[in-house]
């Protein structure tokens, strides 16, 4: 937002005393950047880097990229530099930041809960095959994530994505990150309300808008009208969650201030009822509060959760109503928290009588080749398309009931299981040391091997146990809300440091929402992970009372 527009808006506000030591909040008059990230965003709107990528960098090559763009503004276009090949996570040497940059990029494509048709899935697969050494992971923010992208190929990739209605715009950076939408929106027989039009409106009005391209940090949105709360609403900055008002009918409650990483916090429920048509306006109000009042001095305190924690939900609502919406929200009891799965795995009836089928890759690992095979399958069986889930799964939408078993058999043949083991179903992994510059340990391959081993050791596990494998404290795969959350770190063994994990035990969302307990002694080497988890599971199976889950 320009300074002039900001000053005009601020004139409408109630004066709030300016504290002696500022947190960099624009609304309190701190417009001078207090760190280099804030300075970079002030120097140039990160959205402007799009044209430089298209018309300069892609033509002149990696060496021509301005370092401020490379390590900063590129993120607004969904591009991060990839970990350099051969780097060992800093175990053997301190590596200067610039040496971590390789001439390849990770590219994140946002799906925002959209239905991806066979043609779009094919395009995504072909991009992976042709430009990304056949990578194409499904992330837990409903993205497709590529690796090994060259700057020279970005314009061609964007062109192909745009044909399918997809984009990498603001897929990273201090921006409105990819939305989590219910994977079964508009089709589930037990849905409370279909929020698709609201997500589409938020995207149309605010993604790529310079008014919302400079948040203090990332801003994560989730929206679901499904009673399973299938978008992890507890862990997003802003969540709209389907609820029913006794007089007004279906609408959405508003939850704000969730986030994991270090200092994890669950979102606070406002206890309101927002009709579908008002959701985008309320999103704008909350996003504006974050932009104007969010802390900008320290990056470690710049997420919305810190402001919500300091203000409390009552003050947050008051500011939202008085300063941004100009009206009061309707009070309503928050929806009941669910128990059980949120991943839509298996076969389920749609409201139109057809079926949707949720399938599990292993820890989100997919490939361009697999997506092309999936597109063939969708066409062969006349399936409407797929949606991605926040649990690294894929849901086929609009399957003819007569063809369900044939579809499942064809899915199995390409490595996507509609009837996965408990271990395959409930294990997630972040990107890890293979590509992520912040990683300390390997995650994807470790998770794959772990699933295979636990399937052998506990083939008939009858109670779900979730395992989330993370390569560092950033908790991209939600360390703190798994039964067994694993945070990558180096572990001391004798006089050596080896790859391992700090273990968090007993995390959950839904009715038993809770962060896993972290005990000093709960550390395990990567090599010892199979045996460690086996001992936990054996103890649980031996001691559990009837109906007792792993976490309780
Ligand atoms: Fe990278 Fe850490 Fe996030 Fe894993 S948790 S993707 S290692 S930043």
Structure overview:
The protein has 552 residues and is an alpha+beta fold. The chain is 29% helix and 19% strand. It has 15 helices and 20 strands. The strands form 5 sheets. It has a 5-stranded mixed sheet with strand order 5-6-7-8-9. It has a 5-stranded mixed sheet with strand order 16-17-18-19-20. The chain has a 4-stranded antiparallel sheet with strand order 1-2-4-3, with helices on one face. Helix 5 runs antiparallel to helix 6 (154-163) and helix 5 runs antiparallel to helix 11 (368-380). The longest helix has 15 residues, at 279-293. It is globular and about 60 Å long. It starts with a helix and ends in a 9-residue tail after the last helix. Residues 1-8 and 86-95 have low confidence and may be disordered.
What strand line-up does the widest sheet have?
5-6-7-8-9
- Percent of residues in beta strands: 15-25%
What percentage of residues falls in helices of 4 or more residues? 25-40%
Q: Provide the list of bound ligands, each named once.
A: iron/sulfur cluster
Key descriptive features of the protein:
alpha+beta; 552 residues; binds iron/sulfur cluster; assimilatory sulfite reductase (ferredoxin); globular; disordered N terminus
Give the topology, please.
Layout (H helix, E strand, L loop, with lengths): L2 H8 L25 H8 L5 H12 L6 H4 L8 E5 L17 E10 L7 H14 L5 E2 L4 E7 L4 H10 L16 E2 L14 H11 L14 E4 L13 E8 L3 E8 L11 E2 L2 E2 L5 H15 L10 H8 L1 H13 L4 E2 L14 E4 L5 E5 L8 H13 L4 E4 L5 E6 L4 H10 L8 H4 L1 E3 L14 H14 L9 E4 L13 E10 L2 E10 L11 E9 L3 H15 L9
Parallel strand pairs: 5-6, 6-7, 16-17, 17-18
Antiparallel strand pairs: 1-2, 2-4, 3-4, 7-8, 8-9, 10-11, 12-13, 13-15, 14-15, 18-19, 19-20
Bound molecules: iron/sulfur cluster.
Pfam families: NIR_SIR, NIR_SIR_ferr
Protein name: assimilatory sulfite reductase (ferredoxin)
Catalytic activity: hydrogen sulfide + 6 oxidized [2Fe-2S]-[ferredoxin] + 3 H2O = sulfite + 6 reduced [2Fe-2S]-[ferredoxin] + 7 H(+)
């Amino acid at each position: 937002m320009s300074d002039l527009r900001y000053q005009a808006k601020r004139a409408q506000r109630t004066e709030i005393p300016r504290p002696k030591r500022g947190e960099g909040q624009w609304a309190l008059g701190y417009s001078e950047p207090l760190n280099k990230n804030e300075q970079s965003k002030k120097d140039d709107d990160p959205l402007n880097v799009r044209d430089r990528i298209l018309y300069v960098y892609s033509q002149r090559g990696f060496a021509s990229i301005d370092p401020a763009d490379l390590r900063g503004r590129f993120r607004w276009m969904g591009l991060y530099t990839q970990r350099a090949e051969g780097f060992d996570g800093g175990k053997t040497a301190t590596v200067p930041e610039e040496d971590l940059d390789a001439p390849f990029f990770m590219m994140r494509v946002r799906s925002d809960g959209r239905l991806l048709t066979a043609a779009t899935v094919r395009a995504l697969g072909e991009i992976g095959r042709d430009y990304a050494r056949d990578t194409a992971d499904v992330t837990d923010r409903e993205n497709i994530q590529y690796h090994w992208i060259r700057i020279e190929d970005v314009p061609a990739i964007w062109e192909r994505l745009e044909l399918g209605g997809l984009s990498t715009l603001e897929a990273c950076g201090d921006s409105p990150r990819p939305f989590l939408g219910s994977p079964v929106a508009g089709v589930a027989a037990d849905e409370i309300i279909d929020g698709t039009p609201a997500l589409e409106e938020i995207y149309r009005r605010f993604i790529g808008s310079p008014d919302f391209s400079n948040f203090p940090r990332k801003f994560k949105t989730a929206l679901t009208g499904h009673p399973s709360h299938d978008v992890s609403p507890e862990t997003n900055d802003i969540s709209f969650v389907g609820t029913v008002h006794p007089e007004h009918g279906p609408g959405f409650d508003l939850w704000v201030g969730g986030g994991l990483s270090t200092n994890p916090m669950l979102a606070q429920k406002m206890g309101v009822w927002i009709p579908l048509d008002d959701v985008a306006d309320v999103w704008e109000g909350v996003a504006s509060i974050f932009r104007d009042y969010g802390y900008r001095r320290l990056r470690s305190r710049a997420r919305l959760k810190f402001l919500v924690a300091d203000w409390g939900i009552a003050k947050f609502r008051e500011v939202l109503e008085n300063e941004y919406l100009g009206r009061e929200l309707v009070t309503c009891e928050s929806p009941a928290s669910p128990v059980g799965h949120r991943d839509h795995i298996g076969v389920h009836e749609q409201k139109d009588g057809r079926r949707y089928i949720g399938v599990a890759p292993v820890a989100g690992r997919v490939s361009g080749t697999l997506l092309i095979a999936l597109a063939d399958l969708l066409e062969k069986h006349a399936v409407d398309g797929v949606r991605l889930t926040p649990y690294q799964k894929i849901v086929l939408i609009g399957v003819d009931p007569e063809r369900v078993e044939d579809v499942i058999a064809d899915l199995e043949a390409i490595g996507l299981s509609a009837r996965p083991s408990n271990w395959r179903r409930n294990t997630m992994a972040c990107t890890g040391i293979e590509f992520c510059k912040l990683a300390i340990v390997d995650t994807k391959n470790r998770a794959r091997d772990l699933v295979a081993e636990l399937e052998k050791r506990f083939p008939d596990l009858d109670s779900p146990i979730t395992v989330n494998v993370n390569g560092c404290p950033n908790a991209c795969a939600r360390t703190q809300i798994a039964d067994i959350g694993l945070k990558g770190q180096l572990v001391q063994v004798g006089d050596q440091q080896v790859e391992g994990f700090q273990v968090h035990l007993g995390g959950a969302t839904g009715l038993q929402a809770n962060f896993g307990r972290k005990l000093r002694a709960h550390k395990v080497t990567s090599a010892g992970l199979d045996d460690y988890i086996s001992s936990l599971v054996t103890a649980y199976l031996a001691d559990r009372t009837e109906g007792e889950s792993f976490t309780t």
